[in-house]
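Lab meeting prep.
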Amino acid sequence: MALRQMLRKDTPGSSCTACPGRRWRSVHCPRRQTIKTCAVGPQLATSIPIAPGLRPEPWTNAPIQQNALAELQKRFSADAAPPDEATMKWYLRDRYFDVEEAEQKLRSMLKWRQTFQPQSTTPQMIAAEMASGKAYVHNCTDKYGRPAIVIRTKLHVTGQFPINDSKRLAAYLIDSAISRIPPGGEQIVGIFDLRGFTFAQNADFQFAAFMIEAFFEFYPRRVGQVLFVDAPWVFFPAWEVIKPLMRKYASLVRFLSVSELRSEFFTSETLPPDFK
């Protein structure tokens, strides 16, 4: 049930149409078809700057970490389908190697995936809401090697679609973005385009609560940063409601302008088309 990356060889001679001069890397998503994503090549881990935002604790194979992993594996040993080692390590890193907290959070995620079944979502199941254009996974990573989910908030109209359908679309996009993380990377970035946001139509607190839960319970620390672009003044009353729900993770959020997004996070070739 881990969200692994299974990387295949680059297609000879192919290139990224959104990022001229870069090659496509074929990425196999374990629950769907092979997809293509822009990659910066084998030097990614050493050539990109350290990303801002909240990252998980590093795995160093220190004795305390190895002991925590052994204890967590023991706790799941009687389960019919225990999570794999990579998933256990990720949750230990997220919980600062506290086995009790890692187990609790990991079981919560496994229960959600068993009941909600996001891994069974097909493009056809979310086609209607996807066609609204409210969100997509950008073809290229940012300067820090992170796949980006772009959310056009003005196109998310509260109540237009059943809440479970919106949750399914969100999980599908997060899984898709994670499957596109290049070698050496670990996280994704969420970009909320707040231009045109109105409180009456777009302030969906039920969906926002799910997104917070998903980002920090079901996909802990996979979202390294949340960028709020060109937030209008009418957004801030909604933010005052959402911010306390995020607790310490509110520090992941950065308010910035389109020009700052262009200069700090993307190149002219890799910038999402919404911000060109």
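Slide two material, second protein:
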Amino acid sequence: MATDVARPLTEPSGAAAETAAAPRPAPRIARDKAILAVEGLIKRYEIGEPVLNGVGFAFGAGEAVSLIGANGSGKSTLLHCCTRLIEPSGGRIRLLGDEVTPLPPRRLRRLRARVGLVFQKHNLVGRLSVLTNVLHGAQARQSGPGSWCQAFATKTAREEALHCLEQVGLADLAARRADRLSGGQSQRVAIARALMQRPELLMADEPVASLDPKAGQEVMALFAELARARGLTLFFTTHHLEHALDFSERVLALKGGRLALDATASGLRADDLQSLYV
């Protein structure tokens, strides 16, 4: 469940103590009402301390939530545990109304089909067209050749894929091979592919880490705006503190395998978060 974080991340002294404001704890939400609820999450590998050690939080429909922390803090591990792309070692995860850990493979696949995943590596098929890559997003909810290649897709499916490309500003590149795209264009196609899933939740693991600052800012702004326009819940990891503050309503932070912060973004500044990286 969401944890109380009512103290500053660093202890101010002197005049700073009079003006520094504590992060505002995020509102609590009941576990059975949450889109994603994580309770006592543990992930342990064979050697060393747990990567995640008792992490808990919950958020509701329509929220935009960012997850920050230093390299090795467990951000990607946490995100992947939520859909069991990585198996948790302990704890409970409730996603879109389902208890994730006990789900058998078929039901787990159906659950994952309701989650649009965007990763740092765009995972496009380079020799195929942009339109075909977007159509692949439909594989999460349907089978058959219609979702493999644009030549076999129905008119309705092609129109939907083109609409997704229009939303990311790349409809004019539908026929281009994916390996001829820039990094920013490739990530926009990956976002369009995720939208093609018709997801209820968008999850992104450092979606702009491989892009230059200008392209990263543009893609992150587009990603957040599309989530808002579709009424989707957004959960993303990032190293960019400005992105966390600008494009989410709530900021979670990991440090030492534990949740060090769960606060509303509006009450934070980038300087307030530097201690997470010490």
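Talking points for slide two:
The domain at 1-112+203-215+234-278 is CATH 3.40.50.300 (Rossmann fold).
The beta strands are 36-43, 52-59, 64-68, 90-95, 98-99, 115-119, 201-205, 233-237, 250-255, 258-264.
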